Amino acid sequence: MKHRLALLTALACLLNSCLFTVPVFDKGFEKPDPSLAGVWVSAEALKDPRKAEFTVCTPMGDHLMIHHPAGPRSGDGGIYYEARQITLHGRQLLQLRLAATFKEGLPQPAEKTWTLLWIERKGNDSMDMRALKGEVGVNPDAASLRRLIEAGSDGWEARFGEPKRFERLPAPEKN
User: Fold this and answer.
1) SS (H, E, C) 8-65
2) CB within 8 A of 81, min separation 6: which ones?
3) Residues 118-147: what's their mean pLDDT?
4) Alpha-carbon dihedral 48, 7, 79, 166, rounded to 10 degrees
């Protein structure tokens, strides 16, 4: 469990995310945006993406499957997340659930496996991701957070961390 929590917090650390034992949302999901599919690398690592940690995002029916980190720096094989899309107040959110890790397998029901990402598209091949802040007292329990987010669009910057820019890697050229 300790190792799994360390793997789960890889994305949380990358994006400074708050984690819950239950989902924040249980309805209101929409079909995932197919333009999110692709291999995304943090903008700082674009000079040599072969050495970068990156994310692979694939549509799977009514949700996305996300593998992060992927690539040569993934260490223990990365983490697989199920992501469900919801739009509130004109803002696109992904609710993530830890699905599995290569090394630790499936999570236990009582583990903190849920979080939210706020996605801000910056054109077809660029996006900013903001995760829930993990600071004590900033984001209450999942049900309270849902009510606060549904109630209005004020305070999003206070609840979500700084944006981290990701760029889509171009598809390899075929000979």
Assistant:
1) HHHHHHHHCCCCECCCCCCCCCECCCHHHCEEEEEHHHCCCHHHCCEEEEEEECCEEE
2) 11, 65, 66, 67, 68, 96, 97, 98, 99
3) 89
4) -40
Are 80 and 96 in contact by the 8 Å Cβ rule? The answer is no
| 96 SS3 class | strand
CA angle, residues 145, 146, 152, in degrees to nearest 5: 95
Provide the β-strand partners of residue 157.
Answer: none
Asked whether the beta carbons of 32 and 63 are under 8 A apart, the reply is yes
Domain limits of the chain? 2-168
- What is the tens place of the pLDDT at every residue in 38-47? 888 886 665 6
Cβ contact 65:81 at 8 Å? yes
Query: pLDDT band at 53, cuts 50/70/90?
Result: low
Would you tell me how many other CB atoms lie within 10 Å of the CB of residue 165?
16
The angle subtended at Cα 49 by Cα 59 and Cα 81, nearest 5°, is 30
Q: How far, rounded to the nearest angstrom, does the alpha carbon of residue 41 sit from its chain's CA centroid?
A: 13
Q: Which residues pair with 119 in a beta bridge?
A: 92, 129
Task: Please state whether the predicted TM-score (pTM) of the whole model is above 0.70.
Answer: yes
Q: Which residues pair with 38 in a beta bridge?
A: 57
